Each structure stands twice: as structure tokens, then as C-alpha cells.
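Support request from a user on the community tier.

User writes: "When I paste my C-alpha cells into the form, the page sometimes reloads and wipes my input. The last time it worked, I copied everything first. Here is what I submitted, just in case something in the input itself triggers the reload:"
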């Protein structure tokens, strides 16, 4: 819920979320039914939209519980469901009047498949990440506005075909199926060669001092191509980030919101401040620039606190008296302002030299008004 609130605060027009079942982020902090109801009310109170993922590849036993879940989603008035399975799509049509968005997991790469989904009642198609800009243009032109087009513009990518990966299931004896939301991300693991007749003798494929990560993709970033995508007929820009921090959500959403509003922003610098792997434009201009990279994300800045009340913050990472902190804020008058930490006070009124207890509530002397949702970060 906190990430949803941050996404709204920093400028998202809509959010996509998963319930406890049927979502491809089984290990994320997904929503209970009661939380979904509250989330929908909150989103709608801001005049924005909420989409719920039911994007697993369903088995026979899934359909009765999905049917019940769909009835609940309709009762709380969500704005759309995101589906990947044709059987689930049909079930949505037969049992509800919910709007249907086709998940990127459906791997729509061409205008003919897009037309079929449109004919089946889809109101939006989230294209496969493998689509090039020219293919997106052709698909949008063919649909003639009868179905909206959405594309991912930022976030982690699978090295396999848009999530159609069996590696997690294979490594975990079938118990962690990526196509049912339980991916362990084995593409981020380090690998080595073993000589066939010398069991236990490992030979690293050197990339850096930590080994080689031959399956590990770079992160997608299309911040410099939003106009190209809009001109191609894209209706909605989607940010991947359901297992990321509040800081990640705030920083990325804020950057793209400002770009879409034609505000002046050094988007390269801003996106470097947020944990990420080296960026790529993916398949947008043809062959993917996914070149394998180290699995560990890096950032130029660290998330140290989030404001919960006026000038009161909740601690996340250590900072000291004398440190210079920068404010990430949706408010123009404080965005990217910096100040030196001169006083840290805990809830017992004690003065601290160092903030080090995670989630401790602290009061800071700050020359700027800190408002709920503002984030403090420190250059690493």
C-alpha cells in the first residue's frame, strides 16, 4: 500500500497491483481482498485508475477460484483486469463486465494477434517487450484506435522471452514456476563451467572479480524516447517496479511524470540516483542491447529516510550529523534541494550523532518544509 500511495503522489495516472493469488509476482507484497478494496477507494479518490493482474497461465483447477475472485473485483469497481491466458479472458467476459487488458505475458508481437484480442473484447494490449518501434507503429496503425496500446518503458527485463522461462522451475524441481508467479530469478545467478571428467572442478567465465553473469539482462530505460512512442500510437507508458522500494517507485515515476509534463529535468542524473543495472533500450530499435552484466544493481545515491509528518522522517539507511541530504519530492519548491544535517532528535527527545535504527521516527532541523512522502537521499 505504501508503494501505491507513493506512485500516486509522484504522478502516476494509474497503478497495477496483484492480489494474493493468480499474479506473476507471487513473492511481492501483494494485496488481500480487503486491501484491494481500500486501494481501489484510495486510487479513485485521486481520480486515477487501478488495474489488477490475473496474468498466470492458468491450470484447470484455477478457474473456479478465479471466477469467484473476478466477482469480487467487479464488486469493488476496479478499472480493469490484466490477463494473459485466453481461458481467463473468456471467463472475464462470461462472468463480469470488467475491462480487459492483455498482459505482456501474452507476447503480442504483431497486428494480426492484436486484432484477435481486440475482436475478443480487449480494450488495451500491453505489447511484448520484444517489439521494435516500427512494429509498434504498424500495430497501432492497424488497430485504428479500436484498442489502446501500452508498452513498458522502464525496469527489469527477463533475459528469456518476456517471462516465458523454465529455468526457475527446472532448478527448483518444478516447485517455483515463473509462469505462475514464483520465479527465483536464476538468470541473476553466477555460473561457471565444469569439465565433464573433472567433477567439482569449476572454471569461471571471467567478466569481473565476482564471476560471470551470462544470463543477466540490463534494465530497460526508454526515457529518451517517450515522444517517439507517443507518435507511434502508444497510449500508456508502464513502469516495472512491483518488488522495488518506495524510493525506486518515487524516483522513476517522478522522472517520467516530469518528462511527460515537459518540465526541465536531468533525467539521466535522476535515473542514475536509483538502484539499477546498466540501462538499455531493449528491442526498441531492433536487436536487444541486453548485454550480460553484474546482477548487483548500483546507484549514485542511497535512500536514507521518508517523511511521515511535517519535518518528521522514518529512518531507512544510516546518516550522520554533517551529512548533506537531498530531497526527492513531487513538489517543485523542494525537489532536489539539499541541506546539511545539523540536528537529529529521536522520539524520546534525545540528540543523536548518527541515525542508524531502521524505521525509527526522527525529527530533523531542515530549512525546507518536508511533507509526507518526501524522500531524503544521500550521495554514496
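"...and here is what came back when it finally went through:"
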Amino acid at each position: 500500500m505504501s508503494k501505491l500511495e507513493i506512485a500516486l503522489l509522484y504522478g502516476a495516472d494509474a497503478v497495477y497491483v496483484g492480489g494474493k493469488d493468480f499474479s506473476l509476482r507471487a513473492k511481492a507484497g501483494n494485496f488481500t481482498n480487503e486491501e484491494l478494496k481500500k486501494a481501489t477507494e484510495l486510487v479513485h479518490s485521486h481520480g486515477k485508475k487501478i488495474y489488477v493482474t490475473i496474468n498466470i497461465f492458468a491450470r484447470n483447477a484455477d478457474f473456479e477460484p478465479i471466477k469467484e475472485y473476478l466477482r469480487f473485483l467487479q464488486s469493488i469497481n476496479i478499472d480493469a483486469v490484466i490477463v494473459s491466458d485466453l481461458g481467463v479472458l473468456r471467463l472475464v467476459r462470461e462472468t463480469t463486465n470488467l475491462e480487459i487488458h492483455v498482459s505482456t505475458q501474452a507476447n503480442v508481437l504483431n497486428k494480426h494477434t492484436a486484432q484477435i484480442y481486440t475482436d475478443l473484447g480487449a480494450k488495451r494490449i500491453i505489447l511484448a517487450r520484444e517489439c521494435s518501434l516500427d512494429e509498434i507503429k504498424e500495430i497501432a496503425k492497424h488497430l485504428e484506435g479500436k484498442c489502446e496500446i501500452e508498452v513498458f518503458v522502464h525496469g527489469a527485463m527477463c533475459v528469456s522471452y518476456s517471462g516465458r522461462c523454465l529455468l526457475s522451475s527446472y532448478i527448483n524441481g518444478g516447485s517455483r514456476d515463473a509462469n505462475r508467479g514464483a520465479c527465483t530469478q536464476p538468470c541473476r545467478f553466477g555460473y561457471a563451467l565444469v569439465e565433464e571428467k573433472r567433477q567439482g572442478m569449476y572454471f569461471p567465465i571471467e567478466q569481473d572479480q565476482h564471476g560471470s553473469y551470462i544470463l543477466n539482462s540490463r534494465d530497460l530505460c526508454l526515457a529518451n524516447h517517450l515522444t517517439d512512442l507517443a507518435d507511434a500510437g502508444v497510449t500508456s507508458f508502464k513502469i516495472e517496479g512491483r518488488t522495488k522500494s518506495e524510493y525506486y517507485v518515487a524516483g522513476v515515476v517522478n522522472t517520467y511524470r516530469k518528462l511527460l509534463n515537459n518540465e526541465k529535468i536531468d533525467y539521466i542524473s535522476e535515473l542514475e540516483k536509483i538502484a539499477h543495472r546498466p540501462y538499455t533500450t531493449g528491442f526498441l530499435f531492433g536487436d536487444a542491447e541486453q548485454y550480460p552484466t553484474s546482477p548487483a544493481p548500483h546507484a549514485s545515491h542511497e535512500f536514507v529516510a521518508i517523511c511521515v509528518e511535517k519535518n518528521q522522517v522514518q529512518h531507512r539507511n544510516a546518516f550522520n550529523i554533517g551529512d548533506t541530504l537531498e530531497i526527492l519530492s513531487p513538489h517543485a519548491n523542494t525537489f532536489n534541494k539539499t541541506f546539511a544535517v545539523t540536528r537529529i532528535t529521536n522520539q524520546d527527545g534525545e540528540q543523536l550523532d548518527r541515525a542508524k535504527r531502521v524505521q525509527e521516527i526522527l525529527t530533523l532541523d531542515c530549512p525546507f518544509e518536508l511533507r509526507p512522502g518526501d524522500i531524503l537521499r544521500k550521495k554514496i
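Agent notes: The reload is a front-end session timeout and is unrelated to the input. The chain has two domains: 2-157+218-262, 301-379. The two ends are 28 Å apart (CA to CA). Escalated to web team.
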